[in-house]
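Hello,

Following up on my earlier ticket. Below are the two sequence lines again, exactly as submitted.
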Amino acid sequence: MDVRSQVSMVFHLDKCIGCHTCSIACKNIWTDRKGAEYMWWNNVETKPGTGYPGKWENQDIYKGGWEKDGDSIALKGAGKKKGLLNIFHNPNMPMIDDYYEPFTYKYLDLIESPASDDQPTARPVSLITGKPIDIKMGPNWDDDLSGTPDYARNDPNLEGLTPAEQDAMFQLEKMAFFYLPRICNHCLNPACVAACPSGAIYKRGEDGVVLINQDVCRAWRMCVTACPYKKSYYNWNNGKSEKCILCYPRIEAGFAPACMHSCVGRIRYLGVILYDADQIESAASADESELVDKQLDMLLDPYDPEVIKAAKANGVSDSTINAAQGSPTYKFVKKWGLALPLHAEYRTLPMLFYVPPLLPVMASVTEVSKDQNDNLNPIAKQWTDSWLYDTSTEELWGTIDQARLPLKYMANMFGAGDESKIKGQLQKLMAVRIYRRWKTVGDISEEKVNEVLKDTNLTAELADEIYNLTSLAKFDDRFNVPPAHREQAIEMLEFAGDEKGSTGFGIKEKVQRGL
Amino acid sequence: MSWIQDIISPQTRKWEEFYRNRFQHDRVVRSTHGVNCTGGCSWQIYVKEGIVTWETQQLDYPLLEDSLPPYEPRGCQRGISFSWYLYSPLRIKYPLIRSALIDAYREEKQKTGDSLTAWENLQNNEEKRKQYQQARGKGGFRRVHWDEVLEIMAAANIHTAKKYGPDRVIGFSPIPAMSMLSYAAGARFLQLFGGVNLSFYDWYCDLPTAFPEIWGEQTDVCESADWYNSKMIADMGACLNMTRTPDCHFFAESRHNGTKAVVFSPDFSQVCKYADQWVPLHAGSDGAFWMAVTHVILNEFHHTNTTPYFIDYVKKYTDSPFLIKLEKDGDHYKPGRLLRANELEAHRDIENGDWKFLQIDTSSGELVVPKGTVGSRWDKTQGNWNIKFENIVNDQPYDPLLTLLENKEEVLQTEFTEYGLDKKSLRGVPVRYIETSSGRVPVTTVYDLIMAQYGVGRGLEGDYPADYTDKNAAYTPAWQEIFTGVDSKTVLQFAREWANTANATEGKCMIIIGAGINHWYHSNLMYRAGAMALMMCGCVGKNGGGLNHYVGQEKLAPSDSWGSLAFAKDWQGPSRLQQAPLWHYINTSQYRYDGQFSKYNTVPDNDTTRQHTADQIYKSVRMGNMPFYPQYKQNTLELSKEALENGAKDDEGIKQHVLEKLKSKELEYSVGDPEAQENFPRVWYIWRGNAIMGSMKGHEYCLKHYLGTHSNAIGEDSEDHTQEVNWHEVAPTGKMDLVVDLNFRMDSSALYSDIVLPAASWYEKADLNSTDMHSFIHPLSAAIAPVWESKTDWDIFKELARVTSEVAVKHLAEPQKDIVNLPLSHDTADEISQPEVKDWYKGECEAIPGKTMHKIAVVDRDYTQIYNKFISLGEGIRNNGLGAHGNHYMCEDEYDELIESNHFPVEKQNGKTLPSIKEDVSAANVVLHLSTLTNGKLTHRAYENMEKKSGLKLADLSEGSQDVRINYQDLQAQPRRYNTSPLWSGIMNKGRAYAAYTYNVDKLIPWRTLTGRQHFYLDHEMYLDYGENLPTYKPSPKPEVYGDLKQTLKDGDAKVLNCLTPHGKWHIHSTYMENLRMLTLSRGCEPCWMSETDAAELGIKDNDWVEVYNDHGVYCTRAVVSSRIPKGVCIVYHVPERTTGIPKSQVRGNKRAGGHNSFTRIHLKPNFLSGGYGQFSYHFNYWGPIAPQRDTHVTITKMDKVIF
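Thanks for your patience. The regenerated structure is below:
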């Protein structure tokens, strides 16, 4: 058992507002500069939809992640083996149009236009060429669409659904959407690290954060291809690749990452998870049907004396073990079994987990009688459609089977195709609601409550725990940031007392261009 | 896995300082955004090397009750983008003026050497005036010095006051609560000057008129934490994700605590993702759904299975036991008016007998005069204004009789109208006969009328629905299917779960409602329909219950102290506060395009409804129901001089002179002849808002008639002319002499103004911010000083006051007497002045100011002293005390402390020492020191006063907060929750979430209505005339009658869509809309959303350029095609700026297209013009017609040619 610590994340999709505050918190601090304008280390997608960059989940196009190679695995696209052959021509990279051409507006024209016979307007111009631009793509282009032939219906996760099922998803009585916020997964088996010809990408020992060394990066862009989540970006201005750094300067100072701090839906959780690094290879190369379970098996009980002992032996500090014990992510992922990795089939062992969303109950539609139209008040507006919409349910809440969006669709995202996992989680979420309804209103019978708790392997105590962390959690409950012990790292180079007096001095210089 | 290595070596990782350096910062300052988003979020503003670099949310909100989720973090995608503006190319860095104006002015100044003469000459030169008016909006800005623009504005001010009167100087600034001192700066200057402040809440159509109608409140709602207390939430017209972004989590989280969530929205809007059930009823048909819900509730939970909790509640807290007279109309009866106490011989001489109403005691069967009606509110004898079950005549307790069903003398067939099918029904109503001064009259209870109106037969004869499937009869579940397109089964499930939940939890069912409903023409009826389902189930005044309307940041928490400072009441008498919707309707000449409202408003046919809205406005002004400034064709400063010359000895004499001149009709009301040039508004100050684009319904008419520049409107005068308002054959263009905009960015209003002044942004000034959404007051703070040459609004108006006073020394030095007309006001004894609608102007009654007509006041003005008064706090506060909402308290001790304590600065002027408000921080501290919300001593005092008025024990509410004193620096340190105060109706002690009317329900304080109870029934004569005395459903008007497309469709057919303009995701009104962050995350523009079906029919594909247009104007944008939009509607989210990426319109002659208000025009509902009658009495932003735009229809075509 090789116990290591990882700062992991849980995003509770049922709570996500789709507001993108997280994206801008990140942009303001990290990518608001030339060459990085188009990078969204944190972005939010509407699902169903094709996302950013367009159709990123379609690995037939982008060749990201790993594939099974006998008993082990190999990079699907740009590995050292395959990649070096294509080192000067990487055929599987998203191009600027797959992201979008960053733009601005000629705002100054409003103030500086001379007097004329019509009103001035600020035209959009490209941030790359400075020339007028016809905007055709953006980092959030299919926001809130929930349909349309061009976007939602090209969602790669529709695979395996019949044409009829797909069509039904976009009819009024079954349509729905939800939001998928995405950052770097800081994977346990990161394809980007494996793909980098320069060895510029590494995983930090103390917290598992995956970083691209800006001194070492030589802009081969193999990481861009290798990352199946398309979370590594090439800075066209300075010729380096960059990616989400999990706000390590903030984590080191005891703050939550900016995207998590700013999450106004309070959907995000962060905490340490201890895992067994010896199991990485077997977990990553498991059969598809076992991928999720094997990944979860790697995550260790932080109260287990054996685990603690092994962690200490590996140099994991007491404060980190303590953080792991108070970790909200461990509870969601392991203790309650409520969160799953996104696209486990990419085999990178992502350390960001998602609680799936509940959705409105499906409706049915019948033809309305129009025989009253002639009787309407002559002033009254008449509607041209003819449907009569029924969304009633037998009980207070509909069942999970009645929820909008087929389970298969969600399973393609979160269960490596396995519907039973996602169904179990949604039932668990409903069980907590039913239990809390009984407790706060009392219009559901105790028998029914006991039955649903039993069916979902919950107890009243567990249901209350889930409810508490889901609804009442305060900032410190949601984010358990382990101490960074920077003094120990510094001491390996110089006397920490000297650093106290000298840190920060220096002249800021831009990084050297990579190419 | 040899390729994955954990690297620990610090040497290899030394480069990590690359990102660490970026994060290092120098300063974090607390501020917020003054943007009318209602968020009121506390932010950390990061400063690095003197530059604001980014912002993140503050996390240090104190916790409320243990059972509630915390407020942190508050803030959304828009707020977090704000720092982009600070150094953006849109930033106004220096004062700007249009070259056509400055050149013409300088030429005159050169000639005369005097600013005022120069301005006068320029205004008298028709050609030059026209020249600079036509240049408006078309480039040509020039940077000028502060001194020169201040000189021009001051000259325009004094010139206007001298020539036409000060009430031609107008100011518009929205929603004070978002940055209350910045608002106060302009308001204080204008009111000291004698100018006019335009209202905003009603103008934006954010005022829910049902709130005054039912509760006598402008708006009062729960803070968002209280959503969490609810167990069933119906969300309608409020997309919480988009518009309540920082609060939305309470909704999401309450579901996990077992709350049922139902969302009503025609499109699958974002909030639908949280719904257990999504009900996509037809746009604007929500009222029909709720009428049917209440039909079921009354039938099953009131009648067949009587629910004791519901019955007790409606008896105690609603008007349902009050007696209504039935009036004979041919062979049947009609619901009439409340039976008055003084109609009975026994109570003929009872004090305020017109304003005391009657109930029946269940046990004795005797008539009772309950306490707590508006009459007892204004009785000389205090102590009876409470809603205990006590007879005011003898203090005896009684039990009100709710229904006459078991005690009837007769059943009378009474007529009820259902407007959707335009169907009249006769239904039996149980009555008792009462001997009154005018004979024996049949009366029934409000409750019985409601039962009949909703079609609950209770075994009575008449045209009652057979059962729920009776689709011809109002208001069955089957009937509502016709309008909503929603199946009866959905109604039944909803109604039963609603009532069951309310019964099990004693009132924890809640409606969250928003602009999606309030912006319909008949919004008040939709709100009333929903409110009925709440009140009938005992869900108002309960934590977790209520009708919670969030549209606009209207809650200025410390309004008791702030109101005095803002409107300069510390120095002088009444203010000129104008109801904006009717003002713009008249002054932008939009009334000319309107015609008879009965063509689109379903009203009974009678003398009142056979009129033009403009004529009704004129009547309401002279009756004192509504204000209108300019007041008279004659200059009010001249009018007082004339009075004195004619022998008036004092102010009373002046008033008498004015009254006589009005009665003889020699003195003309401006509203009676708005197109006469003497009656034009002349100088317009805009600050903190986007008056010309964002809020200007009929924007293109504003460009035409106010500004005199190019417009894309092709609407023509209606053939229905006004009768009383003087009709001119040609409407004037270019009414405004000068338009000044204070702004930090070049928005559409700035682009069309003559002068643009660089204003400090929200990270560059001190101010205060409060909201409905939570119970904290937040500061705005200067993270850095105002950039370039910008100044705070406080300093800009202070400077304008200084220079205006200086010009007055030369041109208007002698003290003036101004005459101010005042409407009859809510929360004063004025609200018991007009029991009947009688027009003195037509000789229907005597003209008595303050009774049958508006009040007339004389205000002394010394134009040389405006600056001195601006910077100091006058002694009026010390002498008269403070208050609001009918509360009052003296505060001389606290005023003196402002002078004596070393903590506050003072001004010494004219031999007196006064508290200083020269600096914004001082003004903030004055507001906080004198408010009952932030000074516990005053809180306690106000409750003691209310104890006297009500005869109730209340002071216990303030015992725990007596030592509370909150100042500006405290707020900067950490958010502070304010005190429970009688100013507001929610009780917040011990961390209890604020919920409206818990004060009324828990403490038996009356609502500020006629009966002192919540109103099901509205007996004002106009409500009877307009058919809105009972809750009802009125259908949306069809496009052919609403008048948007008369010219556009003249030459043939086009596909017509209902254009909805809800609040959007990427902006707050127009702010942030052109922010690069938001444009990048959206489509690079504000698109037009369409259904797949409509787009296909029109040959439009996603991202095509389209023109969205009707008679009023055109908006050019891109289409977004989505299956979440139902056919027949399109959505343009409010508000696009016409400044960013707008092409030229091909349907309007290659001229630059406008924004979403280019295709709107003002329509008003005249019953909101009622006044002098209980809750139907004017107050600024409280009562009057609102300006809806949701019923607007457009046509859409694909653009072949896109030209910028």
